[in-house]
Design brief:
heterodimer; A: D-Maltodextrin-Binding Protein, domain 2; D-Maltodextrin-Binding Protein, domain 2; five-stranded mixed sheet; three-stranded antiparallel sheet; 12 helices; 43% helix; B: alpha+beta; Immunoglobulin-like; MetI-like fold; 2 domains; five-stranded antiparallel sheet; 13 helices; 17% strand
Chain lengths: 277, 439
């Protein structure tokens, strides 16, 4: 409870003026220390890049999870979810400009720019070496996208000289490397470039998260289809720095509340038209 | 002929009996858990091989057949593999829907047993991802065998397709050696040095980036003669007497110089296939680079040609030369020398610009470094790529400097030409001296 009060207090000060805020930040540290001693460890304070703001970083070309709509606003399933989390934490949510997917983990690992990355990112062992993850919030799978009626399968694609596109650093990327050893893996910065390449015949296929593939095909690539669904059962998590365990705990608490009070189902219904995801 | 057919029949009969014999001898038990596949994550730094004796991840998949349930799975690898210290991720799926399955993995040497807290129901896909396990260090084809427990009874698991593994490579040995060095550890503990100049990654990057570097050089070297020819053509058009030709050249040069190369690459790589023109990626890369450079070269050549004083044209025509003769024997030879530094600079730019081709899947230097960065989460491969670029650009920059110096000297009048007269004078003086000495 004291935690909330303190935060509201800081917010009010922040509104009052930057000079006051600076003064407040100066006296912030001792207050934090005092708090950790007289409160439970789960309630321990966490550090934020910007006071009162949950700063998010993602690759913003990953509809329906996070993308920029016609009005230039960042929207998507992950955006709504992070807004809900921020609300539970008494924070506001901000998004950094679009950043390549493969730079997200290093950005969080190094810290200083963003607090969390909620970017349709699968919890995976290699990533766990660099960053911590929240509890999983969504299950996902991979899909192989090729020209409609091309009859490509994972068997036909695993051949010398076949170029298969993916987004750099995604689980699709490592899936190709492990499961299509004979094909040439072409990692690209964004999904659209890959889809476009498949559509024009530059690449034979693309491997990408199934919900994204389905969304892309429905929205803009009617000449493509998901030729094979790859049941990976991977789980998305929110990347948090290992230096910020308090934030991870707070996010896990918030996620649990969001699951419980039905907010999660609401968001799922909004973006997938079903809660069975 | 008859004889051969007979032999064939005998062989066929033998083969058939063989097949029957094996099926009779070993009646296949109805599998409750069918092995779908077993794969391993490549763990070769900067390569795609699976090296034995080094941590990697084994992924095994199987489906539970109808009417069956599986409570435990044991996977066994050839002798010399180890699951000790591994962690196991269990995924069970019904179609695409993930089920909540937990379990405990018990590693025991070259096999691992995973006991599930709840039985895996029929029809589900079971995936076990075992991280930080190792294949035998001598490499070879590794078959995943094992057993499973269904309805309280243990059954044999069908063998997987073999996983190709290799023994340690010399390069990997260097990396492993570096891994153990205290100074490397100290170096990497500095966040900046570890992120940008990790010694292990520099070593692997140099070997695995080399093909990309060769391709970069190949593209720009192949493109440049065409760029020069095209550039010269458009330079000529631009100084032509006919307005329409000038207009064509102006549009060509300005559009190409006024738009980013990135855009031109996208248009060529995505646009041409849409017009059903399918060209090999590398060849298309050469074409884009040639066209882009030609616009810059056209301007360089035009400036070079126009820097030759008007008097030279007049002198040439007074000798009875026509325009073409004047151009090719008087003007252009002088232009060439003047434009060499700028053309070299443009060559350097073009060489660096090949990096943009990575965005459309040309397997050049940046593409390789991007792949490596993805796998390692480290920036070092980009630094290694930078060094590869410098290997070409630094000597060229030096060449530009030398050529510029020479030109400046000859234009100041202290070039090699005036010296000849001095030489003549010197030798004349020497002869005089000889003559006087002889006297």
């Amino acid at each position: 409870m004291t935690n909330m009060n303190r935060r509201n207090f800081v917010a009010t000060l922040g509104l009052a003026g930057t000079a006051l805020l600076a003064g407040c930040n100066g006296s912030e540290q001792p207050a934090d220390d005092a708090q950790t001693t007289d409160e439970t460890p789960e309630e321990a304070s966490y550090t934020l890049v910007k006071e009162g703001v949950l700063t998010n970083v993602a690759e913003l070309g990953f509809a329906p999870f996070e993308y920029i709509d016609e009005d230039g606003v960042t929207v998507g399933f992950d955006v709504d979810l992070s807004n809900a989390i921020a609300e539970k934490l008494g924070l506001t949510c901000e998004w950094l400009p679009n950043q390549a997917f493969d730079t997200l983990v290093p950005t969080i690992a190094q810290g200083g720019k963003a607090d969390i990355s909620i970017a349709g990112m699968t919890i995976d062992d290699t990533r766990l070496e660099e960053v911590d993850f929240s509890d999983p919030y969504l299950n996902s799978n991979q899909g192989i996208v090729a020209l409609a009626g091309s009859g490509e399968t994972s068997e036909t694609l695993d051949a010398e000289g076949v170029q298969v596109a993916c987004q750099t650093g995604t689980t699709g990327n490592s899936w190709i490397e492990e499961n299509l050893p004979n094909a040439t893996c072409v990692p690209l910065a964004d999904v659209t470039a890959g889809m476009m390449g498949v559509s024009t015949g530059l690449y034979k296929a693309m491997v990408i998260d199934l919900p994204v593939a389905q969304n892309m095909i429905a929205e803009s690539f009617s000449d493509l289809e998901v030729v094979e669904e790859i049941p990976t059962g991977e789980q998305y998590g929110i990347a948090v720095s290992y230096d910020n365990p308090g934030l991870k705990d707070a996010i896990n608490d918030a996620l649990a509340q969001i699951e419980e009070d039905g907010t999660m189902d609401e968001i799922k219904q909004k973006w997938f038209g079903t809660t069975e995801v | 002929m008859q004889h051969r057919r007979g032999a064939l029949l005998v062989a066929l009969a033998l083969a058939l009996t063989g097949v029957f014999a094996t099926t009779l001898a070993a009646p296949r038990p109805a599998q409750a858990l069918t092995t779908e596949k077993a794969t391993a994550r490549p763990n070769e730094d900067g390569g795609d091989g699976v090296i034995g004796g080094m941590d990697t991840r084994l992924t095994w998949e199987g489906t539970v057949e109808p009417g069956e349930e599986v409570t435990s799975v044991t996977l066994t690898l050839p002798e010399g593999s180890t699951f000790d210290g591994s962690t196991t991720r269990i995924t069970a799926l019904e179609g695409l829907k993930r089920m909540d399955v937990t379990g405990e993995a018990v590693p025991a040497g070259s096999s691992i047993t995973v006991n599930f807290d709840q039985a895996i129901p029929e029809g589900s896909l079971l995936r076990l991802e075992i991280t930080n396990m190792q294949f035998p260090s001598e490499g070879g084809e590794c078959v995943v065998s094992g057993s499973y427990v269904s309805a309280g009874a243990e059954h044999e698991l069908a063998d997987s397709k073999p996983i190709e593994t290799i023994a340690n490579t010399p390069l990997q040995s260097i990396v492993n050696w570096l891994d153990d060095q205290p100074w490397v550890e100290a170096w990497n503990s500095n966040q900046f040095l570890g992120m940008f100049l990790k010694p292990q990654l520099l070593v692997t990057s140099f070997s695995s980036l080399a093909p990309g570097w060769i391709l970069c050089l190949g593209i720009v070297v192949a493109a440049y003669p065409f760029a020069i020819a095209l550039g010269l053509l458009f330079a000529m058009l631009k100084i032509s007497k006919w307005r329409i030709l000038r207009a064509i050249a102006v549009v060509y040069i300005n559009v190409l110089r006024g738009t980013p190369l990135f855009l031109q690459i996208y248009i060529m790589f995505f646009g041409l296939p849409m017009l059903n023109i399918n060209i090999d990626n590398n060849l298309l890369g050469i074409i884009v680079m040639a066209i882009n450079s030609s616009a810059y070269l056209a301007e360089i050549f035009r400036a070079g040609i126009q820097s030759i004083p008007q008097g030279q044209y007049e002198a040439a025509s007074s000798l009875g030369m026509n325009y073409v003769q004047t151009m090719f024997t008087i003007i252009l030879p002088q232009t060439v020398r003047r434009v060499i530094p700028t053309v070299t600079s443009d060559f350097i730019t073009a060489f660096k610009d090949t990096s943009l081709l990575s965005s459309v899947g040309v397997m050049e230097l940046m593409m390789f470094s991007k792949n490596l960065t993805t796998v390692t989460g480290n920036i070092t491969p980009y630094v290694a790529a930078g060094i590869f670029y410098l290997i070409v650009t630094l000597p060229l920059i030096k060449v530009v400097g030398i050529v510029e110096e020479n030109i400046a000297r000859s234009e100041r009048g202290s070039g090699p030409r005036p010296k000849r007269r001095a030489d003549v004078a010197d030798s004349a003086a020497a002869q005089m001296k000889e003559a006087t000495d002889a006297c």
